[in-house]
Structures are given as C-alpha cells and as structure tokens.
Amino acid sequence: MDVDIPELPFSLRTYGPDGNWSYEDGVLTGWAGARQDRFVPPTGEALDPASDAPRLLGAPEGDFQLIARVTVGFAAAFDAGVLYLHVGDREWAKLCLERSPDEATVCTVVTRGRSDDSNAFVVDGSSVWLRISRTGSAFAFHASPDGKRWTFVRIFSLGEVKTAGAALVGFMAQSPVGEGCVVTYDGLEFRPNWPRGLRDGS
C-alpha cells in the first residue's frame, strides 16, 4: 500500500506486518503488534525468520534530512518508535526512541549482516525529535529535545549506495517483548541537503 504525506517529496510504501498506518492533520500513526521487532543478534543466536516489524518507507533522491518528533505509547521494555534506513536485507539501521529497558532512551542499531546495539542518552518523557541525514553513501543520526538544537549520535555507512534512490528511509514501530504499542510522528520535515555541521547543534 502506498501512502502520500504532503511534507515529504516521495511516496511511502508499507513493508512487513500490518502497521495500520494512518495520516491525518500532520500526524502519522503506526502500530506494532506483539513481539514485532527487526534485529539480527550479534551473538549468533538463531533469529526467528518471522521476526519483523511494520515499516513505511520511501526512496528520496540525493542528499537529505528526514525529521520527525516521535512519541511512543510505552507499555513494555524495548517498545520503540523508529526512523528507519534500508539498503539491503542485512544492511539497514534504526534510530529509536525506545524504553531501554526502564527509561525512554535514544538508541541506535546498525546492521551489516548482524546488528549492533547502542544507547545514546535518556529522554525525559515519551517524545523526542529524531533526524536521519544522508550524503552519498554516508548517513548520520541526530536527536533533539526541541527540534532546534541537535545532538550528534553517530555517523556510518552501509557500503556503497550506487544509485541515488537505492536507500529507503522512513518509519517503523516495534514491540519486541510486549503486546504491542502505538507510535505517532509529527513535525514531519524533509530537507534536500546534509547538515552544515554534525557536532555543532545545527
């Protein structure tokens, strides 16, 4: 199913389980079902082949920044709202507002065959602004309490992205050990450029 959001210059398509995605009055809403997640354990543990989570993704051209305020209806540990980046089946990344495990936390996962997992900082409340940026084959994650001054989280690549539209970007909801959660995204913004500086708050 395709979803068009006026703030974004590209269409979005649903992937994975049904997320009941809806958009109204500037707010995008999605639902994760029970035990839905997207993670490849770095320890080599067996991964349930059915493990997946609802995603809503599109293919912007060239350099960009995707920005949203993410609000999560936390009910269980590791419930999260996510800005998601996808290059291949085992090459993807998540920038999350996650209950990890007892406090709302900005977390990141970068998967190159197997996933890493890193916590950045604790958030006061159930909302935070998140931003994914791209230039060429490089991607950056930032977070902000107010959507104005941004804290650098990480920069990375997922190999050579050979064509401008090859990287999919968008939204995901997860509830790895819980019975499900709702995630909303507002303040949606797309910028066709890379940030002026990664570590100067811009």
Automatic annotation (TrEMBL):
Kindly give the Pfam families that the UniProt entry links to this protein: DUF1349 (PF07081)
Task: Write down the Gene3D superfamilies for this protein, in alphabetical order.
Answer: 2.60.120.200
Domain of life (superkingdom): Bacteria
Q: Write down the InterPro entries for this protein, in alphabetical order.
A: ConA-like_dom_sf, DUF1349, UCP022704
In its UniProt entry, what is this protein called? Answer: DUF1349 domain-containing protein
Q: Organism source for this protein? A: Streptomyces durmitorensis
